[in-house]
Design goal:
- The protein has 175 residues and is α+β, with helices and mostly antiparallel strands.
- It has one domain.
- 30% of the residues lie in helices and 45% in strands.
- The chain has five helices and nine strands.
- Strands 3-2-8-9-7 form a five-stranded antiparallel β-sheet. Strands 1, 4, 5 and 6 form a four-stranded antiparallel β-sheet that branches.
- A hairpin with a 2-residue loop joins strand 5 and strand 6.
- The longest helix is centred in the N-terminal third of the chain and has 19 residues.
């Protein structure tokens, strides 16, 4: 006969194993943009403490999106966790800096893509915008617009820095 503590441990361990199987860990390169201030220390603290990386990373996990009235919004489905290396500066456009961050991402596996759309995100376009969007989120917006989708699920399949202020992304979409 099992003791109450053993039963409790089994009851906690079994759901944990099931949810761990739904989450996969993968290594990715995440791209982060930020408007820099005058202080290098302040910029480093902002990158580290202000949640820029989670905002950029949410596009690499399955995310529900909607497009209405020129606005694009996303929300992550399921759980998302990560560990990140130190950001590496790739380039600047005015006061906007583009960083690459190596990340170990743990998130739900994406669904089967109904469409795959390749898009180019330009740092100059991000820098000109009134509100700064992270490159992966902008890539999802461009892909959804190209596919003429108003809502659904989107995620970054791959994203690479192409140099000269350009990022190339392959975006998965499903309804």
């Amino acid at each position: 006969m099992l003791r109450p503590l053993a039963l409790f441990c089994l009851a906690v361990a079994i759901p944990s194993c099931i949810s761990a199987q739904a989450e996969a860990q993968r290594s990715i390169k995440c791209y982060v943009v930020m408007r820099e201030g005058a202080s290098a220390e302040g910029n480093a603290l902002y990158l580290q403490k202000m949640g820029v990386e989670p905002e950029a990373l949410k596009s690499f996990a399955p995310a529900n999106f909607s497009r209405a009235g020129g606005e694009f919004s996303v929300s992550v489905r399921g759980k998302l966790s990560y560990s990140a290396e130190t950001p590496v500066l790739l380039e600047r456009s005015g006061s906007v800096a583009l960083y690459e961050v190596a990340v170990a991402l743990r998130a739900d596996d994406p669904p089967q893509a109904k469409k795959r759309v390749r898009v180019t995100v330009k740092l100059g376009d991000l820098a000109k915008a009134k509100e700064l969007a992270q490159p992966a989120v902008r890539a999802m917006d461009l892909a959804a617009a190209a596919a003429k989708m108003r809502k659904g699920t989107a995620w970054i399949i791959e994203m690479e820095y192409a140099g000269k202020g350009r990022l190339e992304a392959l975006v998965g979409l499903s309804e």
